[in-house]
Structure formats: C-alpha cells, structure tokens
Amino acid sequence: MLAPLFDSFAAVLQPMVLAWVLLGVALGVVFGAIPGLGGGMLMALMLPATFAMPDVLAQGFLIGIYVGGVSGGLISGILLGVPGAPSAIMTTIDGSAMARKGLAARALSIGIMASLVGGLLSWLVLVALAIPLASVATKLQNFDYFTFVMLGIVLIAFLAASNPIKALMAGFFGIFISTVGFDDISASERFTFGSSFLSSGFDILPVLLGAFAMRSVMTDLANPSKMQSQASVTIREVLSEMGRAFKYPGNLLRSSLVGSFIGLLPGIGSNIGAVMSYTAAQATAKRPEEFGSGSEEAIVASEAGNNATVGGALIPMIALGIPGSAQDVILMAALILHAITPGPLLVNEHPDIFYGVITSYAVANIFMFLVMVLSLNIMAKVIKTPPSILAPVVLLFCVVGVISAHNRIDDAWVMFGFGLLGFFMASMRIPLAPFVIGFVLGPLAEGRLRSALMSSGGDILPLVTRPVSALLILCCVLVMLWPFVSHRLRKRRLEQRAG
User: Membrane-crossing residues (predicted)?
Assistant: First the structure.
C-alpha cells in the first residue's frame, strides 16, 4: 500500500494540483465563515466547473472546499458568536464565551490547531483502516443508530453545568421542534394546527442563526455596556498560543477517533461528530461545569471531532461507494462524471484516484491551517468594529443568508422567532446547547427508529436484545444515574470528614 501512496503524493505535489487544492481550501474557508453559506453549497456550485478538469485537479479542488468549509465556521463562531456552519455549533458556545473574556486569540489558536490535528489523525485512520472500518460500519442497524443519538442527548443534558432537568427538557423540546411540519412517511402534517406557515417545518439554518446570532444581538442590546468586545487578535498572538491545544493530548486523540468513527457512519455529518466529541470530552473532564462558559477542552474536542469526520466520511465513499455526508455525494458525482465509480473495485481499477483522494485530503488539511492563520489578521478586525455597525451587518448577513438558502422570506421570521426563544432561554438560565443538539439530532433519531420498527414489524424488542443498542441504553441509564450517585458519594465523604 505504501508504494502507491507515495506515488499519489508525487502526483498531488505538482504545482498545478497544489494551486487548485489551495484555491479550494481558501474558498471553502471563506464560505464556511459566512453564516448561511457553507462549503456544501460551494461544492455544489463548483461541480459544473470540474467537468473539464483532469481527475486529479477535480478531486483536489473539491476536497479542498470540503476541508475548508468544515473548518472555516469556527472563525465567525468565535469572533461573532454566530456559527458559520452547523459543524461549528459546539465551538461557538465556548469560543464566543472566551472571546468575550478577551481570549479570542487563544480560542482561535486552539480551534485551528485542533482542526489540523483532528484532520491529520483522521487521515491516518483513512490510510490504515479504510476498508476494514467501512465493513464494520455497515453492520450497524437502525436501532443502534437511534440509541447512539439518544446517548448523545443524555450525555449533554446530564453533564450540563448546573441543572440536568432543565437541560434534558431543553433537549427534548429541540426534538419536538424538529418534528413540526409535513411527515414524508405518513403523508400527514404534525403540530401545524392548520397553518401553512408551519407545514414545511423549521429548517436548520434559520433555527441556528436565530438561536445564536439573533439571541446574541438581543442580549447585546439588552446590555449595551457589554456590546464592545475588548479582545484583540494578531497573527503573532495566535501563533504564540498554538501549543495550548497540546495540553490536552488525550482529548485530541479521543475526539479525533470519535469524529473519524462518526464520519464513517453514512449520513451523520460533521455537526454530530462535533457534538459527540464534545459530550465525550465533557464526560471525562475534570471540570465539566466549565463547558459552555469558555472551556479550552470543549474547543479542542469540537474542532478535532468535526474535522476528523471528513476523513472518516471519505472511507465508505471510496471503499464502498456509500457517501458519508452530503459533501461526499457531490464528490462522488464528480468522480462519476469522470467515468469513475467509487466502491470496492476503485482501489484495483483506479488506484491513482483511490490514493489521490487520500493524499489530497492530507494536503488540504495543511493548507487549511496556513490559510486560516494568515487570514486572521483580516478576520479579527471584525472584533474592533463598533457595535452600531457590527450589529446591522451581522443582521444583514443572517437575513440574506437565510432567505437565499431556499428563497423563502418566511425563514427570516422563523430566525427572529428563535432569536426571541434563545433570548428567553438565556434569561431563564436554560442551556441552549441541549436544545440545539436535540433539534439537530431529532430527525436522525426519529428516522432511524421508524425505519427500525418498520423492518422489525413494529417489534421494539431488538432495541434491548441487540448487543450494541443494549450497551448504549445501559450507558444512557448510567449517565442519568451518575449525578445522583456522585451527590450521595460527595455527601458521604463530607459526613466522614465531619465525623
């Protein structure tokens, strides 16, 4: 395997190929950093441009956009408190909190370095375990997927900062909101109350922009003395903080492996990779209560996790012909348009493409790191923009982005509505993260459960008889019991000390 891999490096490290990979990464970072756009949209727009390109240029360009789009979301997430892409949701929660404390350079530095490490570690997984891991992932069934999602929601709720009950309620409310609208399976409307406005449901983009961007603007307007950030960021400051990510080697490794595995599961996505890595880090952290209020470990976990999903998602795409994400569908389409069919025969029939995808991914991660560091001097000026100018600009970007996504002005009203909801939740000290996670994971959990029940003839028993799903249910129960057990243990220790 090493010989063709080295040959693919020789092919990719040609000036023309490197130029196209670099261009793809730069465009991906820009689109990923602008709320409402994203790398997936750019890949779709650029697909026709790859028709006349040689195979190696087309794959390098699209993979560059893929990597840059996933990574770029952390810039606006940290500097503006608005995730540029769904993959940056968890980074935004802690990164923007650090920026408000004057630690924007540190947050950006940790996030960029964690992105690079996560991408490169997932590249090693891609190189070593492409075919074996892909075969394991195909053995998971719908009941396993459902319990896996529920474990993620329970983890983030019961390891929340203060009130697990509030957090769990917020998570299930997010799931409920995700069910509103027309149900494709039953061909009926749910919770629309006869309103045509609600029949199409709530798209993820207006909900996320409302919960983060609008809530942030409303909070700033309610506290005008806190509107101006005192943070300043220079390239020198960011570079000086680069080593901080390596203070958490276990977190980096675990989050990269979790992200790689999540990416391996078809149809999951980088946002869920970030969620799962975040919750795993919180479950093992010495100070889990700091998550959500500016934790360095949280940024390491979410950024290493979401970038690692890209390498993981490429595994089933090139080894089995099963796209691991929406971006992989576009990448597959580009290969098919070049008369190349991804799948088990790809490594034998087109080894240059098989290893070229792997090599392009490694190069794209290095370029991503360089592009993001060198562009921070421009991006960071956003922090020093007067709030009277910044707030309308943020609002304009959000409105234009949310309307242009589906050409629906109603989405703007949805965004404002969820902004009010986010502001209310913040004032009532209800954590926002479980709500957003519930909304994102809800459709996945529901779809997997309904598919599982249809395949089992309505029998729920496999949920507890299948080894994987039974183990995950047991983990859910243990996580829910842990706060009460730890409280009893703490109380007993205090009594022993007093005695």
Answer: 20-49, 61-83, 103-131, 143-161, 197-218, 257-278, 329-347, 353-376, 388-406, 412-442, 463-485
In degrees rounded to 5, what are phi and psi of residue 332?
-65, -40
Can you name the residues that pair with 183 across neighbouring β-strands? 188
Looking up tokens 């039974």 gives 470
CB-based burial of residue 386 (10 Å sphere; 0-12 exposed, 13-18 middle, 19+ buried)?
exposed
Whole-structure pTM over 0.70, yes or no?
no
CA distance 71 to 86: 11
The amino acid that residue 343 corresponds to is: G
User: Which tokens sit at 474?
Assistant: 């047991």
68 Cβ contact partners less than 8 Å away, ≥ 6 residues apart: 24, 25, 26, 27, 28, 29, 30, 31, 32, 39, 364, 367, 368, 371
Question: What pLDDT, on a 0 to 100 scale, did the predictor assign at position 162?
Answer: 62
Dist. CA 359–CA 2, nearest whole Å = 12
**pLDDT, tens digit, 9 for 90 and up, residues 190-230:** 888 777 777 778 877 688 778 766 776 776 666 654 444 44
Q: Which of 92, 211, 174 is nearest to 435 (CA)?
A: 174
